[in-house]
């Protein structure tokens, strides 16, 4: 009897554990376009199209190797409403000796997967996902007993373990582990970022685009203009383009934002990387090669490697060692619903309008846009973490809960009470003004606090500091801010808090009705 090997949509690596010992003469690979995966939250159509197209291309590549792939398309009648349903049907079809699958990227799916063996009546072997640079066992050992889990220490261990950017004496290249301080420049007005490469949809992708437009066109997000890399070869080409044209400036302008330019010097590889089309260690090594070849400076290469080798692995470790309780925490007791403008972009606050619109159009925004614009607003306004998490999971093509949740819940919202971030990433309009040109195109002024045209972020910021005093005043890194607030005097603070309340009360909260 065959072994049935299930490959999920974000497991599109030839080296995935479930395919490890495949016998092409005997086994069947199962892939399922599952309605439930598209709708448990209403994913951005671009994200669905990207995954379906990447899945179909991956299936074709396996078939070209002589492997039998049973690919269940969404538009086949009666097929694959969910992973479980699709698997049950396939087991009935093939009567396999056993089922082999790789552990998923979301707790929700793992919980379900644990019940599959009983449901289908054949052994289900759930294999570890070997595509990460820190096995979860190692992360557990590293985290065990530590009260706070700072990324920086984890990252240094990872640099040593993988021998990246080390001198022959195992010291950090250049004498420092971290060049983040050099990576906070605003963008000079005359500096243009090169356009990222566009990948014109082939016939297979066009078919997917039609399907997704018909089925999910009513979800938040734009499908037109789809040009994402959907094969390993295209993703490699996209990464090459980044190394050649954007990596040299990636570090210096990592935190910068500019009106109308969502990509700047970023790599744009998160969606193909998280789906399995790229290998993280390979990306780090190729960036390191660019440094040794004198093509890119150390602050750029170290900054890039830190994101992949450090942050990406670290948030995954946090997710799997802390779930399911992690998602339930709400350290700052935030309960406000999500304002409607997160879905419509309709707000006078230009920075938010820009980021929501770019997110709608591209299923992408870069890190500082996610953290310091939409994330910062949600933090300051005290929006319910569950609502914010759901939004981030829906809108970004790279979002799977293992990476989205710690970034949103922990880093942006401080809902975990500081397990992940050493202090809340709260900022006033001054920060956004320094790092972008958004304020120049805004009806509000970041320099004003109480006037009618004062940037709402300013009042919201002081309201946040005052409101969260019990938690934030205990934080050593926030003491100065509380001292500053005390010096401002009660009357000023009261006026700012009134202004914040009036502003928040004036927002619309009902989600827009779609179709
Ligand atoms: P670059 O800036 O070029 O960075 C290179 C790579 O480093 C990224 O592709 C990514 O794989 C990795 N990386 C960078 N920062 C992080 C990080 N904080 N955590 C994990 N990996 C990182 N990233 C996701 O992949 N999926 C998400 O759902 C996601 N949600 C986020 C939510 C919030 C609130 C915030 C603040 C960040 C989130 N990130 C998420 C991290 C980061 O914003 C994206 O990885 C990045 O913007 C992707 O664009 P890029 O490929 O051009 O990244
Ligand atoms: C995100 C997603 C979507 C939209 N659709 C599918 C699908 O139809 N079939 C599939 O195998 N995977 C899909 N995915 C990715 C899964 O949601 C992902 O594998 C799980 O969340 C575990 O990480
Ligand atoms: Fe955003 Fe305030 Fe600047 Fe307007 S003034 S763009 S709301 S930070």
UniProtKB/TrEMBL annotation:
Record keywords: Lyase
UniProt key word Ribosomal protein: no
Pfam family, one: DPRP
InterPro entries cross-referenced by the UniProt entry: Crypto/Photolyase_FAD-like_sf, PhrB-like, Rossmann-like_a/b/a_fold, UV-DNA_repair_photolyase
Top-level taxon in the UniProt lineage: Bacteria
Signal peptide feature range: none
GO molecular function, one term: lyase activity
Protein name as it appears in the record: Deoxyribodipyrimidine photolyase-related protein
Source organism: Caenispirillum salinarum AK4
